[in-house]
Amino acid sequence: MTAWLSVLVPLLVMFFALGMERVESRLREATLRQDELDELLQRPRPDEVRALFRQGTVRALELFRLRNRTPGHRRSARRTKISS
User: Fold this and answer.
1) Residue range 22-76, pLDDT digits in tens
2) Distances in Å between the alpha carbon of 78 and those of 25, 42, 48, 64, 81?
């Protein structure tokens, strides 16, 4: 019985450590960068603030990243609305 425990316990600890490493790597990828958060909080838009309070940081950062991907498209759309 002791021999089985001396083999099983290290194996269980090893598998647990490997599983936690996978979880940690996913969390590391999903974390936000400090400069992104600073920029979001310095120049927020109403939809981003609404998403921040209702759904949390992840959704607000998704909206922020979408805004940063196509800045010319949204600016030109705003200008045409204002000028017409």
Assistant:
1) 888 877 766 667 777 787 778 888 887 888 778 777 777 778 788 877 655 444 4
2) 40, 20, 17, 17, 5
74 touches 67 (CB < 8 A): yes
Please, what sign has the CA dihedral across residues 37, 39, 42, 45? negative
Residue 45 · residue 67 · CB < 8 Å: yes
68 Ramachandran zone, left/alpha/beta (phi>0; psi -120 to 50): alpha
